């Protein structure tokens, strides 16, 4: 592998919160863990932040530090995001192996490295299933739940348990069950929830409100710590009711560094686009500063733009909504599965790599992970209505269908929000022209979304 293309763990976990911000957050959470241990209490911390602010890095850092400093704590990082777990495990294993080689030490066998990392980073569903089989407290005293907003509501969890696990006695939401597992500890425990706002992309994903509801319903004695932003703007986080006993801590919200390419303005800009607020998006576009947001109708030019901008170990890639199936005539096959480890970690000379700009990743492949530069390929899943709002659509069988279910509509919008916020330094949006001869690809649909994005302040890609 060429040195300039070697991908390290630091590249995967690169963030824009700034070392000082991350240090404050980690320091406060560690103090909560210490106090829980000292006083024999149970506590929960909610860490929030915009995409790219460093939530995952904060969680990994806390788990690593606590495990190294106190062997009796057995901290673990849990995620229900399969691609994220695979990529983090592979990146950590590669990084550890390279560090050993650089120090002239014999590298541990792949199985030994994998075993230790698998204990440190686990799939949340495996953790859940293991504790369904037991009534004992888990060995872990500190648990970090990544993307906690994606935990299932009661309806989804019960349906899954009955259908996939043949468990007809399960009758609670995933947050309620996971908290009940940690509540088995008779002395103390600490739970850390990493929460992304507006990132729910699957049916049944409950958001932070389900965690707060579970605490109010069954665990009122837990110490609850969350950002003051959740208290002042509960509607932004989908919070209906706040616990009566809570402590607000500014350090639990990760703000991006003022010197970073991507400020919180980028997340707000993407949200304004997706939520159908073009005037607000246009106003925000002037604050994007060094972050580039461009649009083109030529996929070849979009690829050239990505190649020109990436430097060194920076990565670029093509993204599209998982139901953007009518991009197929453009050579974009969203139903062709990718291996996220190869896509995110392979050398750019590897055809499976994101940098090869050939295979397409969807919102399910990239949530929680990032590129430096991204091309978001847009299909007719978002239509501009007469009232100039965005109307979610889905393609089934041979034609497009309107989406009436409120949750499904929200997930489609959130999926596009995720895709537009996967890049650290710049995004180019590709909107095809469509085809007059193809009733599933009417040019009017694509022309309208193209004009809408320009109205929102997305700049034209210059040749």
Major sheet details: 8 strands, parallel
Can you identify the CATH class of the largest domain?
Alpha Beta
Strand content: 15-25%
Q: Could you tell me the radius of gyration in angstroms?
A: 22 Å
Helix content: 25-40%
What is the CATH fold-level name of the largest domain?
Rossmann fold
**SS element count, helices:** 17
Helix/strand/pairing class, anyone? Answer: alpha/beta
Number of strands: 17
The pLDDT mean sits at 86
Low-confidence stretches: 1-9, 257-261
Please give the CATH architecture of the largest domain.
3-Layer(aba) Sandwich
| Domain tally | 2
Shape: globular
Indicate the topology.
Layout: H1 9-12, H2 19-39, E1 42-49, H3 55-69, E2 76-79, H4 82-102, H5 110-120, E3 121-123, H6 124-132, E4 142-145, H7 154-164, H8 174-182, E5 189-195, H9 208-218, E6 223-226, H10 228-232, E7 247-248, E8 253-254, H11 264-274, H12 278-285, E9 292-296, H13 299-309, E10 316-320, H14 340-345, E11 360-361, H15 363-366, E12 371-377, E13 382-384, E14 390-396, E15 399-402, H16 406-420, E16 423-430, H17 443-455, E17 459-460
């Amino acid at each position: 592998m060429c040195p300039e293309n070697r991908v390290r763990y630091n590249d995967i976990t690169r963030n824009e919160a700034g070392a000082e911000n991350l240090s404050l957050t980690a320091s406060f959470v560690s103090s909560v863990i210490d106090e829980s241990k000292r006083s024999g209490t149970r506590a929960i911390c909610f860490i929030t932040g915009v995409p790219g602010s460093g939530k995952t890095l904060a969680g990994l850092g806390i788990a690593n530090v606590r495990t190294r400093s106190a062997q009796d704590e057995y901290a673990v990082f849990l995620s229900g995001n399969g691609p994220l777990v695979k990529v983090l495990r592979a990146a950590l294993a590669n990084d550890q192996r390279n560090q050993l080689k650089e120090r002239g030490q014999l590298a541990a066998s792949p199985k030994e490295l994998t075993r230790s990392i698998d204990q440190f980073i686990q799939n949340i569903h495996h953790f859940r299933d293991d504790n369904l089989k037991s009534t004992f407290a888990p060995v872990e005293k500190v648990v970090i739940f990544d993307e906690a907003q994606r935990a299932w509501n009661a309806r989804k969890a019960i349906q899954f348990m009955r259908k996939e696990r043949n468990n007809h006695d399960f009758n609670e939401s995933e947050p309620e069950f996971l908290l009940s597992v940690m509540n088995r500890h008779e002395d103390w425990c600490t739970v850390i929830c990493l929460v992304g706002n507006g990132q729910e992309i699957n049916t049944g994903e409950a958001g932070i409100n389900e965690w707060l509801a579970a605490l109010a319903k069954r665990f009122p004695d837990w110490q609850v710590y969350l950002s003051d932003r959740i208290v002042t703007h509960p509607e932004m986080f989908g919070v209906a009711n706040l616990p009566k006993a809570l402590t607000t801590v500014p350090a639990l919200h990760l703000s991006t560094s003022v010197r970073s390419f991507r400020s919180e303005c980028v997340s707000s800009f993407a949200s304004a686009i997706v939520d159908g607020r073009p005037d607000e998006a246009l106003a925000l576009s002037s604050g994007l500063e060094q972050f580039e947001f461009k649009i083109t109708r030529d996929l070849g030019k979009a690829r050239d733009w990505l190649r020109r901008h990436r430097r060194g170990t920076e990565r670029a890639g093509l993204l599209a909504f998982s139901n953007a199936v009518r991009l197929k005539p453009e050579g974009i096959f969203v139903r062709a599965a990718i291996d996220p480890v190869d896509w995110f970690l392979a050398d750019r000379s590897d055809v499976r790599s994101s940098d090869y700009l050939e295979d397409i990743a969807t919102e399910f492949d990239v949530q929680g992970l990032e590129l430096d530069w991204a091309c978001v390929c847009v299909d007719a899943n978002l239509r501009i209505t007469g009232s100039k709002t965005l109307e979610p659509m889905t393609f089934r069988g041979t034609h497009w269908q309107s989406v009436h279910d409120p949750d499904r509509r929200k997930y489609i919008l959130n999926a596009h929000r995720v895709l537009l916020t996967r890049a650290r330094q710049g995004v180019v949006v590709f909107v095809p022209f469509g085809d007059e001869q193809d009733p599933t690809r009417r040019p009017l649909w694509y022309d309208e979304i193209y004009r809408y994005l320009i109205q929102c302040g997305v700049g034209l890609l210059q040749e």
